[in-house]
Amino acid sequence: MWVISWVIVQFHKFFGLFFIPNSGWAWGLSIVFLTLVIRAALIPLFVKQIKSMRAMQVIQPQVKALQEKYKKEAERVKFDPVKKREVQAKQQREMMALYKEHGTNPFASCLPLLVQAPFFTSLYRLLYNVSAGKTFAFMTYALVASANQAHVFGAPISAHFNTPAAQLAKYGSTSADVKTVIVVMTIVYMATQFITQRQMVLKNSAPDNPMVKQQKMLMYVMPFMMAFFCFVAPVGVLIYLLTSNFWTMGQQFYVLRNSPTPGSVAHQQHLERKAAKATKKGKPAPVEDKAPVQDETPVSITSTGRNKQQRNQPSRTTKSQRTKR
């Protein structure tokens, strides 16, 4: 709360030089730039998240093989609780060893969201205190009164969907204004989240990735789950969420264009752009790395169990054929 309030106050002082200090522009832009600072600080975690997700895709067949292996062992000892726990512990150790070997972690994709949680919660509580007229940290009485007068399209930044009409009337707003603004912002939020997830699933996933089905389900479910939260969050928090979504869209656009997942649609488009650029400059088009072609010579197994290539055996000729030669 101290960090968040200090950053917002500093941005408010800056934007107060260009806009009316009590306006929605001064306070709204303060929240927008607070979000940008947080997301910029999380770029290293975002890079780590991308690398981890790609590594997870690479080792997914090995993970599935381990799961199948220990599933059979667990079935065999299902009536022995001690041995069953031993099998589960062994499976967990091998899984962690596999993740460590490839430098990945299944929880790495959650790191940016987890790190944002304290800032997000603090902003929520900051706006809650503003609506209650409470002073705290760097938010003095004058700043709290100023923030309560700030409106975004007619809705106070500290108001939420069910704010009483009597309280809104003190700041020159109505329930209809607040509900309209929140509904529109929620729709925009759902749309941006859906577009972001859809692009990631359809363009940046390898066709053989077994996690695509789960990602498609989340693509349709998550926007509606977050919509319920939008109806209890203050307008200022919705500004934070929308800014964060637009930042994520920009990050994703950069990744899809410059560093897509190998084998994905975005990767194919990336190669096509590089080929077109090389052709335009008169250079040979870059060739995608391909697996070496296997020797199609038939292989036989010897009595020792080793693979040995079959050589062409000379055909037997008859005495009449040799005479003709």
Automatic annotation (TrEMBL):
Keywords: Cell membrane, Chaperone, Membrane, Protein transport, Transmembrane, Transmembrane helix, Transport. It is found in: Cell membrane; Membrane. Its main location: membrane. CDD domains: 5TM_YidC_Alb3 (cd20070). It is a multi-pass membrane protein. Residues 27-255 form the Membrane insertase YidC/Oxa/ALB C-terminal domain. The chain crosses the membrane at residues 25-47, 178-196, 217-242. It comes from the Bacteria. GO terms for cellular component: plasma membrane. Coiled coil: none annotated. GO terms for molecular function: membrane insertase activity. Residues 264-325 are annotated as: Disordered. GO terms for biological process: protein insertion into membrane; protein transport. Residues 297-318 have a biased composition (Polar residues). Belongs to the OXA1/ALB3/YidC family. Type 1 subfamily. Interacts with the Sec translocase complex via SecD. Specifically interacts with transmembrane segments of nascent integral membrane proteins during membrane integration. Required for the insertion and/or proper folding and/or complex formation of integral membrane proteins into the membrane. Involved in integration of membrane proteins that insert both dependently and independently of the Sec translocase complex, as well as at least some lipoproteins. Aids folding of multispanning membrane proteins. This is Membrane protein insertase YidC.
